[in-house]
Fold this protein.
Amino acid sequence: MNTTTTVTPLGGDVYEIDTRMAGYSGITAGYLIMSDRPCLVEPGTSGSAPVVQAALRELGVGPDDLATVVVTHIHLDHAGGVGDIARMYPQAEVVVHEKGARHLADPSKLMRSARMVYGDALDTLFGELKPTDAARIRAVEDTGTVDLGGGRRLDSHYSPGHAKHHVGLMDSHTGDLYVGDAAGMYIPETADVKPATPPPDFDLDTTLESIGKFRSLGPQRLLFAHYGPVTDVDDTLERSAEELRVWVDAVRDARDQGLDLDHAVAMVVDRTKDRYAITADGVDPELAAKYEVLTSAESNVAGIMHALDKNA
Ligand SMILES: [Zn+2]
């Protein structure tokens, strides 16, 4: 096993864990809140589960110590490892939005549609989401609370737009807001903010409302699933909203011109690439490719097209 640590302390008894989706480092972050009732946010993929287990062991969290596992939403890069982690940590309660709960108990439908999207790449990217005993799953609605012990709480806030089963989570002790993918993707190497607008749920107005909700919570720090902590909260959320508008405008133009998906993607990439340091000339192309695995321009354009078709 790789002996390089995947754990980074972030202060406030919060530890970032690089969950190493498909073996990549630095694209999927899980977080352990090391409170009286330890809580894991974003377990990552099924393939991530051994990585997470090793990180928790390093942090002194044994099989019976983990109190809660929370997912911001049930996409496989966030929740694919829930079934594995639930088996490794038999005391842990699994917390998820009500629109995602049944898919964690019975993942067959979710896995079938993921297989249609990803084909054979599904196995290397994510692996198989295994079922979790329904009795261990707690569904939250518009808001919900995870007891972290010692008076500390993690409050969930429904934040659809990227996905209809998405929640953000605010730590009462640190003011950390776990944003999942609702505010897009933050690329720490270049400080870029890029949208994450996959089909079939993406909706611009809903996403902007969720970003507004996040702003109104007044977080001290944003913890991105992709990737890591950001303290420049207001500017980052503002940038996130702006990027969404730019991409939706570009896709709308492509759609008005009657372009097919491939040509629309080419046009949108060309029109937006100068906005991001990561796609500028001279930047490590491997770095850009790594993030493209996670959120491809094609998936973003397809998601926005789908939303425009729906609203037409
Ligand atoms: Zn994601």
The CA atoms of residues 278 and 287 lie 7 Å apart. The domain at 7-232 is CATH 3.60.15.10 (Metallo-beta-lactamase; Chain A).
